[in-house]
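Annotated sample (chain length 122).
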Amino acid sequence: MQRVHLAYTLSTEAPPQRELHHPLIALLGALHDTGSISAAARALGLSYRHVWGELRRWEAELDRELVVWVKGQPAQLTPAGARLLAAERRAQARLAPQIEAVCSALEQAFAAALDETTARSS
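Output written by the structure step:
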């Protein structure tokens, strides 16, 4: 069974989106949307070689093929790859309000911790 580990980024810049991000799911989504490794790599701002290597690494890690390539045809997700992508998208949609609440709570906690007026009165 695969285990999930969550992490977050602390930054002064506003995030483009408040959602959990996993590189494999991003790769699968880009491949699904574009139909090729080169187009997926461009969409993700990565090199073709990196995307190819990451896909192979994840296939070895999960012990299953995630993408099918047939010469002259667009790349397609295997049933396992499609199920992973769909499961993550469903979870993201279901958890979006909770993710937003956690992000807001952390931002408020950090703002209070870094507020000089609060620090002096403690």
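Annotation: The chain has a mean pLDDT of 88.
Annotation: Residues 42 and 48 are 8 Å apart (CA to CA).
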